[in-house]
Amino acid sequence: MGLVTSEDLFPVSRLAAVQEATARSGLDALLLTPGPDLRYVTGYDAMPMERLTCLAVPASGEPFLMVPRLELPAAEHSPASRLGVEFVPWEETDDPYAQVGIRLGAVRKVGLADRMWAMQSLRLRDAMPGAEQTLAGGVLRELRMRKSPAEVAALREAGAAIDTVHAQVPNFLKAGRTEREVGKDIAEAIIAAGHATVDFTIVGSGPNGASPHHELSDRIIQPGEPVVVDIGGAMPSGYCSDSTRVYCIGEPPADYAAYYAVLQAAQQAACAHVRPGVTCESIDAAAREVIADAGYGDYFIHRTGHGIGLETHEEPYIVTGNTELMEPGFAFSVEPGIYLPGMHGARIEDIVVCGEAEGERVNLSARDIVII
Amino acid sequence: MGLVTSEDLFPVSRLAAVQEATARSGLDALLLTPGPDLRYVTGYDAMPMERLTCLAVPASGEPFLMVPRLELPAAEHSPASRLGVEFVPWEETDDPYAQVGIRLGAVRKVGLADRMWAMQSLRLRDAMPGAEQTLAGGVLRELRMRKSPAEVAALREAGAAIDTVHAQVPNFLKAGRTEREVGKDIAEAIIAAGHATVDFTIVGSGPNGASPHHELSDRIIQPGEPVVVDIGGAMPSGYCSDSTRVYCIGEPPADYAAYYAVLQAAQQAACAHVRPGVTCESIDAAAREVIADAGYGDYFIHRTGHGIGLETHEEPYIVTGNTELMEPGFAFSVEPGIYLPGMHGARIEDIVVCGEAEGERVNLSARDIVII
């Protein structure tokens, strides 16, 4: 688990807070299947699967965890065992959906884990025909957006881990290798750096750098090409890393260096704008303005960032229209980009946590183009 | 991509077959978000995300792919570009759910990707209030269960890769190390063996081996203990590996060796029973009978297996009550287990493909206890 303990990250008191928030929201129950919502509430890192594992948190009354019998020992060994909720094991030939419905009784409105699979949400719908389904995210976002000191420590730990991977990228990235070969070395380094999973390895060389979510191809990297490397994974704590740096095999083209300097200023401006009380969209605007003023506005084709925690992408989103006010503990990416289709592109990404007075970046590697 | 090409794995003709199956099933459209269903139909390995990517396959009329603008280049470079379907990009501030509804028009019944997140299924429900939601799996299972020769080749490739990882486990597994330390080495080896992702690393030492889905703990492995190692990942092709072997640090306890021999006979009996025309449940029964006859019936607490392909767990399930008849191309795990709570456990798992006359195992490492 690294520097942060499971007890600190997933305090036992959280379940009561979630139950209160459920009651306040007018929902009768939350239904949480494996994924980030369940992990946030219980600390239980259950694998999403066709067999139903589901924590039911009624607005009043006792929560219970429906769990396949063969998962019972794993659940009992997980942090969920500290919560004092009843574990209800079901057998291979039982109908656990019906059992959830019967136990909850007459409920009118339930909140489903945002990532619940249709395979399960539709079966719960059929088992509880009187219950309107909505998203648990509406209840949990208020809690999940405000990271505790332990969660911030876990994000710092993830940031430090991915920084060490970026430090190794010059060893992997050579002209004549394919993006896929480089990506495989990066994936191994992500695990070696202490991540539990590799979530994405974007290696966008030359024109592929102009596609923000390009992943890996068999394209051979050429001398003189800029390469966008955007990588991340989840630590054993569950908390995610995500950082982008730009590399160049030799000196970059002159036009590239010019717009990279604009991008660097934009990313700096957005990070410097972070403080409690500003809107999420104003952080986006701080980056966008610098890029637009330099004439590259049409080439910055995505929002400035996304929240991060137990998910790589979660609330708050740093995007036009999001008037939510920053608070201490909000954690998100600041990752403006400039993309020239058919030519090349650039993006600089750090994870930033809003503190009491200003933002703190958890990624600390230099933000200049790394010349290889 | 290894030995198997994307063109062979995801033939262009598949979309028409899916559209015909959709029409036959009485659905008006399939709605496929990123995940195994979308990948099966298009070859597009899009990352599941909060931004909507959705292939709409109407029972009649033109399919289209709703795609975030920043994902458009990735989609255009993916195998989905071969299909001749319209790509409909949406901007960061658009409502893509409404757009899907408007484009499809009046539909009464839609099939959602089995793993579609509630975040998306509920928004599609609200955008298309007249459309009853059901699972796309009902349409796709008939196709996905019957693996093509290219898919079987991809499963063989995945099987060979995980076999090389098992061959290295004796280098990692030592008394005095924790399960987590061993698991980290295995995860690195899974990537080094050519997998694109690590999906699970179960290292169940001593009593933890009695919990079938135990993953990793900080428990220190002791001399004389049996250790259940169940590991798998997805290859760049998308096809998954999954294999379990048992290791022992020194000679196993005498009672352990006795029930391991029963387990080995049960796993062999189930594999030998595989052929076209037998029911899925009869393969489960073939393993269960051997274990029950030896008096361990109460300690085999799960089904014998699950289908495998683009998902680690998919149809067909090898479980009591599944009367589906085996056909050539069905691919699934055969993994009986015996678990003595508080003491130790054992499981032997191979992936088996039903051929024209008999089953073919894609995992070929020896099935004896590996003494370290």
Short description:
The structure is a homodimer of 372-residue chains. The first copy, chain A, is an alpha/beta fold and 372 residues long.
Protein described:
The structure is a homodimer of 372-residue chains. With 372 residues, chain A is an alpha/beta fold. Chain A has two domains: 6-144, Creatine Amidinohydrolase, Chain A, domain 1, CATH 3.40.350.10; 149-371, Creatine Amidinohydrolase. Chain A is built from eleven helices and 17 strands. Chain A has helices at 6-9, 14-25, 36-42, 72-77, 96-104, 118-127, 137-144, 149-172, 179-192, 254-273, 280-293, and strands at 29-32, 54-58, 64-68, 86-90, 109-112, 132-135, 197-205, 226-234, 243-248, 305-307, 314-318, 331-334, 337-340, 344-347, 350-354, 359-361, 370-371. In chain A, the strands form five sheets. In chain A, strands 4-3-2-1-5-6 form a six-stranded mixed beta sheet. A four-stranded mixed beta sheet of chain A has the order 7-8-9-17, with helices on one face. In chain A, helix 2 packs across helix 7 (137-144) and helix 10 (254-273) runs antiparallel to helix 11. The relative contact order of chain A is 0.12.
